[in-house]
Amino acid sequence: MDCILRQTHFLNARLADGSLADLTVTGGRFSAIAPAANAAAPPAGAVDLAGQLVLPAFVEGHIHLDTSFYGDAWRPHIPCTDGFDVRERVAFQMRSLEQAAPMDERAKNQLELCVGHGSLAMRSHVMVDAAVGLKHVETILGVREKYRELIDIQLVAFPQSGILSSPRTAELLDEALKLGCDLIGGLDPASFDRDVNGHLDVVFGLAERRGVGVDIHLHDGGTLGLFEIEEICARTAAMSMQGKVAVSHAYALGHISADTLARAGEMLAASGVAIMTNAPGNHPFPPVAALRKAGVTVFAGSDNIRDSWWPYGDGDMLNRANMIGYRSGFYEDRELEAACDLVSHAGAKALGLEGYGIAVGAKADFVALKAEHVPEAVVAVPRERTVFRRGMLVARDSRMTS
Ligand SMILES: [Zn+2]
């Protein structure tokens, strides 16, 4: 992408505070943001945004690039024998993936879906276990390389079949980090491996050895899940990893009393552990407003998109903000703005992104869409939008331009 010295002017951009501004992008970053001048002779090549709302590009905080069937044949969902069973779902997934289109093709479909909707930064978990070894990681690393000019991707080495209950997985996770994964993942230390300390010893041990962050899938509910969150917070604080650890799903936070939640919020904020939610189907999920009030970084992701876990998902983080707002009972403007924050600034904070936002010096990764203000964008989810990467058009109306 040739943007080293290129300068582009974007006129009449509506900022989040409602004002109209002219944005100048130089070398892929915002070099000036000034009140709209309405000049009689605009600079050559200027793009008139005509009052469209400009938001920083969305942050897809949790996705699985290796397991989606998006763009592949439709695969009817197989229900668990009794309720929801992670182990049984993993077995279904293994079977379905054997018949799926090549992984790089499916990952590419999913990436283009996300970029088309305006996500230009992403964290993807990638399966590592004894059966698939490092195959998924190697494939997704290749896809990341192909798309590096278009989207920033963090990869999590994800032990989908547990660590202690899946032979050689600890070694494979270490190899995945050496190959280029940015974070170490985990999966339900109690219910999957039935050994909270043993599981977390491996996860945090690898984090320390390879100097990477942590993002753990935690579906365990109630007091069991809360106990695991406490253990994760304690290890994070003890290892001074504040800001580098996230718990994905953390359903337990949606099961506990308000008093217990308040204490958990204080603990999460103090230890710098972020919480990722996708406001899933009929599950209780972390109370977003209460956690934010306590100072916790809450961010969002699509998680599964049309895979063997569920048939939903459209890769649109603005639609995800809408879902989170809807399920959280967010009606006031400040609440709708909070929903948007989860898929933008809070996501950037959780992922530790440099130069994020609509600000002088920040990377010019942004979305322009037809809405008067942020609350309207969250409730209307306009599909008509343009996406700019480093100030260059990459997608229009939810489709990539090239
Ligand atoms: Zn996940």
Can you put this structure into words, describing what you see?
- The chain is an alpha/beta fold and 402 residues long.
- The chain folds into two domains: 7-57 and 357-397, Urease, subunit C, domain 1, CATH 2.30.40.10; 65-351, TIM Barrel.
- 35% of the residues lie in helices and 22% in strands.
- It has twelve helices and 17 strands.
- It has an eight-stranded parallel β-sheet with strand order 6-7-8-9-10-11-12-13, sandwiched between helices. It has a five-stranded antiparallel β-sheet with strand order 5-14-15-16-17, with helices on one face.
- Strand 12, helix 8 (288-293) and strand 13 form a beta-alpha-beta unit.
- The model has no long low-confidence stretch (mean pLDDT 95).
- The chain binds zinc ion.
Please sum up the structure shown.
35% of the residues lie in helices and 22% in strands. With 402 residues, the protein is an alpha/beta fold. β16 and β17 form a beta hairpin.
